[in-house]
Amino acid sequence: MAQLTNTRPTAELQALDAAHHMHPFTHGAELGQKGARIITSADGCWLTDSEGNRILDGMAGLWCVNIGYGRQELVDSATRQMSELPFYNTFFQTSHLPAIQLAERLAQLAPGDLDHVFFASSGSEANDTNIRLVRTYWEMKGEPQRRAIISRWNAYHGSSVGSGSLGGMKGMHAQGGLPIPDIHHIDQPNWWSEGGEMSEHDFGIARARQLEEKILELGPENVAAFIAEPVQGAGGVIVPPESYWPEVSRIVKEYGILLIADEVICGFGRTGNWFGSQTVGIEPDIMTVAKGLSSGYLPIGGSIVSSDVASVIGGGEFNHGYTYSGHPVAAAVALENLRLLDEEGIVTRVREETGPYLKEKFESLAEHPMVGEAKIVGMMGSIALTPDKARRAAFKADAGTVGYLCRERCFANNLVMRHVGDRMIISPPLVISKEEIDALIARAWKSLDEAMVEAKENGLFEAA
Ligand SMILES: *Cc1c(COP(=O)(O)O)cnc(C)c1O
Fold first, then answer.
1. Omega into 179 within 30° of 0, i.e. cis?
2. pTM for the complete prediction?
3. Would the CB of 263 count as within 6 Å of ligand 1?
């Protein structure tokens, strides 16, 4: 078959890209100078670029290709559904087989009585839905003053106006007038950077208690919900201290506020269970899902809600929905993806076999002289770069200077490993083999060596 995407020289594609294509979270002029790396095909855990390089994808695309690239079953399910019914909506009392079956399957997989699904096409949309869901829930229960939603600094919940407000990315809030009213942020449980002299245990409790303090400050009767990722992803894979979530659970129960677990990354096997909530031991009222739901083959997301939330909302008309809520082709592909994850035992393998293997190898990166800590849950992990391990010191240079340098070395070594500030993160396809894990760690180590040399040569290896 003809390579549709590889028919023009790389330089020409880069020039066209720079001329017409605006990229998300990218400095446009800088990219224009440099030229984008152009990915042409992929298989398993490997990408191929327009120059023919084979690159190990340590990020599963953007935390989403859980099943790996190149699964013909997903292509076939899309083709079948496109022929049969490419689109119909789910508004105005209509439905269709893919949406029905996917909702049923998600209700089976989701813990507790999370039995109802409201579909969207992305995580951002689903979190926008959640803002309206939780406020409408309290309005319908006769407590309309409960509007406040508490979130965390450095959380990522999406990039729309609503979800970007929920998120705690200060750079995002700085552009375009975010956050919307009645969204409040508390500090994140990032012990390495912010824990000071405290033990991890005490720090976890202290950060959880900030939720209680915020609830009391706002007045418990005004608080609708708390939203958090079980393990923060885009914030740098921040694995909370073990003491954190039990204390948060106590607090949300005590004050009767809704808990939204944003499972967009943690869901569908990433942490070694179907959902991150199971891994960290929480019982949310709503879970946000997207990304791994379809392994990124088509855009789909949603909110999985408890019977209580569904029955309260169902008591009236919910004036909300997206044209593509429950899109039949996306739903069919998601269903097939869930079938493969289940029948091939991929989630179990992450929990019992490849996850523990990756953990052992990944944690050995902490022995590198530029690495302070290595933290990993299932198949999402991060390392903190530092010029001085003993002091858990940050670099004197702007946050992200050394991280960026390290990411560039990874790219040059044909490994996709992202940086968030000066943390390097991985989130590979869940189908990664032990041999591929060995390759990932070897390339990461080599890139760290090279980045450290480069940092030293450029006077960047200095503590703040
Ligand atoms: C990616 C992400 C989102 C946003 O999903 P989009 O599909 O990009 O809109 C929301 N929450 C979390 C935790 C994410 O990682």
1. yes
2. 0.97
3. no
Ligand 1 centre from 123 Cα, in Å?
4
Give CA separation, 286 vs 116, 126, 227, 234, in Å. Answer: 10, 11, 9, 20
The radius of gyration of the chain's CA atoms, rounded to the nearest angstrom, is 22
All CATH 3.90.1150.10 domain ranges of the chain, comma separated, are 10-70+345-457
CATH of segment(s) 10-70+345-457: 3.90.1150.10
Q: Tokens for 198?
A: 């405290």
Residue 336 in contact with ligand 1 by CB distance below 6 A: no
pLDDT digits (tens, 9 = 90+) for 399-450: 999 999 999 999 999 999 999 999 999 999 999 999 999 999 999 999 999 9
290 pocket-lining for ligand 1 (C-beta < 6 Å): yes
Q: 122, 152, 232: which to mutate for ligand 1, most atoms within 8 A of CB?
A: 122
Query: Which DSSP string do the residues of 228-256 spell out, in sequence order?
Result: E-SSBSTTT-BPPPTTHHHHHHHHHHHHT
Fold designation for 73-343: Aspartate Aminotransferase; domain 2 (3.40.640)
User: What residue type is assigned to position 272 of the chain?
Assistant: G
Q: How does pLDDT run across 100-137, given as a tens digit for each residue?
A: 999 999 999 999 999 999 999 999 999 999 999 999 99
In the chain, residues under CATH classification 3.40.640.10 are 73-343
- 262 CB near ligand 1 (under 6 Å): yes
Decide whether any atom of ligand 1 lies within 6 Å of the 157 Cβ: yes
Number of CB atoms found within 10 A of residue 65's CB:
28
Give residues with Cβ within 8 angstroms of 42, minimum separation 6.
48, 57, 69, 70
d(CA 378, CA 397): 32
